[in-house]
């Protein structure tokens, strides 16, 4: 008699039965017990960059400007932030300036369409109170006060001296006597002198000013800081001396037409 349980089919775990499916050829297809899903958190979107709102353009304010010594259209346009720069300023004032935008005379009235306010220059006023004496140090010697800005007389002597100071800053050689000698030969000291009869005049470029400089030479040897007007005494002297230094070594070496 067979022992109990000898041929008993072993029990199959219910969980195991759930994952085995009978197929042909002895192959079994396994199926997952659980269909797990994975949900990822949505990444927050960054806020769009704030768009800058362009500022409204500063409205242009029309004003009347009086040209002073040393002015140029470019300098005036830059000072008042004229839209379109010196070309627009020239276009607005062509009737007053004339055919050459480089030739503007002191006292000329210009219409300026300014987009920037410029504070007026302060003028010195006399005080009714007496000036206080300079404080003396313990030794009893008065301290030196700061010297005022150098001024020049508005005559031939003053023009030559101002030119010489500018020439010294620019490294342009020349002496008072050399400049004076050539001025007296060329124009007799008349800053408005013009030669309308020589070959330069026939070519359309008459000699102008104290040292009788033609426009192309004046433009080529113009010294920064001086007027662009060839009739301006200081600008004319300084440009002529700059030219003479380049061609002859110095205005002192010029003793005739140059």
From TrEMBL:
Gene3D superfamilies: 1.10.530.10, LysM domain. Residues 119-142 are annotated as: Disordered. It comes from the Bacteria. Residues 63-112 form the LysM domain. Signal peptide: none annotated. This is Transglycosylase SLT domain-containing protein. It comes from Streptomyces tibetensis. The lineage of its organism: Bacteria, Bacillati, Actinomycetota, Actinomycetes, Kitasatosporales.
């Amino acid at each position: 008699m067979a022992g109990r349980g000898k041929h008993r089919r072993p029990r199959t775990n219910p969980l195991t039965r759930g994952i085995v499916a009978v197929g042909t050829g002895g192959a079994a297809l396994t199926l997952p017990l659980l269909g797990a899903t994975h949900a990822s958190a949505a990444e927050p979107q960054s806020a769009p960059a704030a768009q800058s709102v362009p500022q409204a353009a500063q409205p242009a304010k029309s004003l009347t400007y009086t040209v002073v010594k040393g002015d140029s259209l470019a300098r005036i346009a830059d000072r008042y932030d004229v839209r379109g720069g010196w070309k627009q300023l020239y276009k607005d004032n062509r009737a007053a300036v004339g055919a050459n935008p480089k030739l503007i005379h002191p006292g000329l009235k210009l219409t300026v369409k300014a987009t920037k306010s410029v504070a007026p220059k302060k003028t010195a006023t006399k005080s009714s109170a007496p000036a206080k004496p300079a404080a003396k140090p313990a030794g009893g010697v008065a301290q030196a006060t700061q010297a005022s800005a150098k001024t020049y007389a508005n005559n031939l002597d003053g023009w030559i001296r101002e030119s010489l100071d500018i020439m010294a800053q620019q490294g342009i050689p020349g002496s008072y006597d050399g400049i004076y000698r050539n001025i007296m030969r060329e124009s007799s000291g008349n800053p408005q002198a013009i030669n309308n009869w020589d070959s330069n005049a026939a070519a359309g470029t008459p000699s102008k000013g104290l040292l009788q400089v033609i426009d192309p030479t004046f433009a080529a040897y113009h010294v920064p800081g001086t007027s662009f007007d060839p009739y301006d005494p200081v600008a004319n002297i300084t440009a002529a001396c700059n030219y003479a230094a380049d061609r002859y070594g110095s205005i002192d070496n010029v003793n005739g037409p140059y």
